Amino acid sequence: LAILALAGFGALEQAVHDRAMSRKAKDRTALEDRIGYKFADKALLERALTHISALSGGATRANSYQRLEFLGDHVLGLVISDMLYRAFVKANEGELSRRLADLVRKETCAEVARAMDLGPALKLGNSESHAGGRLRATILADACEALVGAVFIDGGFKAADELIARFWKERMLK
User: Fold this and answer.
1) Helix crossing, 66-87 with 93-104: angle to 10°?
2) Which of 26, 92, 94, 129 has its CA at a distance of 20 to 30 angstroms from the CA of residue 33?
3) Contacts 24+ apart (CB under 8 A), 81-88
4) How far apart are CA 25 and CA 71, in angstroms?
5) Which residues are CB-contacts of 94 (< 8 A; sequence separation ≥ 6)?
6) Which residues are 123's β-sheet partners?
7) Which sequence positions are flagged as catalytic?
8) pTM of the full predicted structure?
C-alpha cells in the first residue's frame, strides 16, 4: 500500500508539474505573439526573463538576463540610431543624439516593456516579487533590453530590427 501511495504521489506530482509547465509554455507563447517573434531557442527567452534574484544554488549571474541586457542595450542603440538617421534626414547630430537618448532611456524601455506586458512573464525571486519587482521601471527596462538581445542572438539583426521598429517607431515619430 505504501508503494502505491508513493507511486500515486509521484504521478500526482508529475501531473501538477506538467500542468504548471503547460501554463508556463502558454504564457511564453502568448508573449511571443505579443512581441511578434517566435524563439527557436526557448532557453534564450527564459534567460531574457530571469532576474538575478530568481537564481539559486550554483547558478551564476550569466544565467540571468544581465548579459543579454548588455547586448540588447547596444543593439537597441544601433537600430534606433539607424531609424533616426533615415527618418530625420535634415536633423543635425545634436538633434539625433537628443532623440536617441530619449528613446533608449530607462523610462522609455520600461514603457515598451509595459506595452509588451513583460512584468507578469518575469522570473523573480520571492522577495523581489513581493516587493513589486514586476512593476519596477528599472527591472522592466533591463528585461526589455535583454529581450532585444535575445531576439538578436536567436534571429539576427533583421529580427531585432523588426521588433524594435514595432515597439519604438511610433515613439520615435512623436
Assistant:
1) 140
2) 129
3) 82/161, 83/164, 83/165, 83/168, 83/169, 83/172, 84/172, 87/172, 87/173
4) 25
5) none
6) 50
7) 73, 145
8) 0.85
